[in-house]
Amino acid sequence: MDSLPIQVNGLTRFYGKTRGVDDLAFTVERGEIFGFLGPNGAGKTTTIRLLMGLIQPTRGSARIFGLDCWRDATAVKSHVGYVPGDARLYEAMTGAQFLDFLAGFRPGIDPARRRMLVERFDVDLSRTIKHLSKGNRQKLALVQAFMHDPPLLILDEPSSGLDPLMQRELLTFLREEQARGKTIFLSSHLLYEVEQVADRVGIIRDGRLVAVATIEELKRQRTRRMEVAFSMPIDLAQLASVDGVQVLQVREGGRWVELGVSDGLPVLLRRLSELPVVDLVYAPPDLDSVFMGYYQRQEAITGERAR
């Protein structure tokens, strides 16, 4: 398998006249964790269903290890561990029966790996699935995706329903799998989750990719927020006149100011050193602010086009 784990070119899917995704183009490199972010209805699940060969593209192509995701769907699935966003399990089976059933489609599963996964994710295999909580069903879905040790994992909201400790365990496991050479496509609405493990991120909105970059590259493009408290009201023009600095909020009669800083930090710090500062918070950029920045920017563009 010398080809890229995922290669998407011009991928488009419409449901009648309704947009699913439009002209997607990206690649996922071998051994990376690629985060896939977007609001509800943006096209994340449609993209994943196209990658898994569950629906046919209107035009364009998606390939996994060089195999066409639609024409070679059966072969593609042999290389992928998949967790759907809304896992539908066979409720009349116990967890053990469910894993045995799926193992019948994948000869050669290592029993030791299956036992390790069951213990690691604390899965109760004795109970009937219909009696399992959402979190326990999700853990069973994780085990079935990982147990055949595939080279590529495609995970749609994999931590859904998990408690915080198990969410942390899942992220640790994903990093370990990456260290073993696995490639991971991770769709999630939990931005901090993606930020902890992803090498690169794709942001999708209204069915189109608006950004594909490393998390650090995305953060460098965003405005950072600074909160400054003063012992007395100040002349805000002293701060607003610095290139790359915006005054976002003012409270307490001008004694508390929130700034947006995209450039000019050395000049700003010199200016603040001349003012009666009593407290200052300058938090690092996070993926949440990055995502919201792209989301709001696209809303503004859409609004301008509508005029």
From TrEMBL:
The ABC transporter domain extends over 6-231
Q: Provide an example Pfam family for this protein.
A: ABC_tran
Question: Tell me, what is one Gene Ontology molecular-function annotation carried by this entry?
Answer: ATP hydrolysis activity
Cited InterPro entries: AAA+_ATPase, ABC_transporter-like_ATP-bd, ABC_transporter-like_CS, P-loop_NTPase
User: What SMART domains does this protein's entry cite?
Assistant: AAA
What are the record keywords, sorted?
Answer: ATP-binding, Nucleotide-binding, Transport
Q: Which SUPFAM superfamilies does this one have?
A: P-loop containing nucleoside triphosphate hydrolases
The yes or no answer to whether the keyword ATP-binding is present is yes
Matches recorded under PROSITE patterns: ABC_TRANSPORTER_1, ABC_TRANSPORTER_2
Family recorded in the similarity comment: Belongs to the ABC transporter superfamily.
The entry's protein name is: ABC transporter ATP-binding protein
